[in-house]
Amino acid sequence: MQTVTEDSDQCPLSEAALLLSSKWDLIVVYNLLDGPHHFNRLKEKISIPLPKELTSATLSRSLKKLEIDGLAQRNVKSEVGQPVEILYSLTKKGEELEPVISELYKWSQKWIRSASQHHTN
Q1: What would the pLDDT profile of 55-91 be if each residue is shown by its tens digit?
Q2: Which DSSP letter does residue 10 get?
Q3: What is the Rg, in whole angstroms, of the alpha carbon atoms belonging to the chain?
Q4: What's the CA gap between 4 and 24, in Å, rounded?
């Protein structure tokens, strides 16, 4: 698992690309933009539009990496007599990716989706 360090001499764009280097990292952040989620709900939400189900191990690795990189956080709530509740959410750093992800989403709809539709017609 590769992470970015504060004292890196890399290009800022290269550092940003490393933060979201796994194909799942960007999708996990995108799905956490609307608020905190339990692990299983997040897995279900991500898996719905995909042809292949996201495995629990893969989601767990992605969440751990996003935590290490300061983009996501794991919030544990424990009350006596109640089951432990774990919610995943974005940190302020992760939330600030919203405009970037929004623009990437728009770009993808315009250039990738339209190109694939053009090739299938």
Answers
A1: 999 999 999 999 999 999 999 998 888 889 999 999 9
A2: S
A3: 16
A4: 17
Cβ contact 68:88 at 8 Å: no
Provide the pLDDT for residue 116: 59
Are the beta carbons of 47 and 53 closer than 8 angstroms?
yes
Give me 47's structure tokens: 């898996």
Identify the architecture of domain 12-120 in CATH. Answer: Orthogonal Bundle (1.10)
The 3-state DSSP class for residue 90 equals strand
Helix (H, G, I), strand (E, B), or coil: what is residue 29? helix
C-beta atoms surrounding 1 within 10 Å:
10
Mean pLDDT of all residues belonging to the chain: 87
> What distance lies between CA 27 and its chain's CA centroid?
4
- To the nearest 10°, report the CA torsion of 63, 65, 69, 75: 30
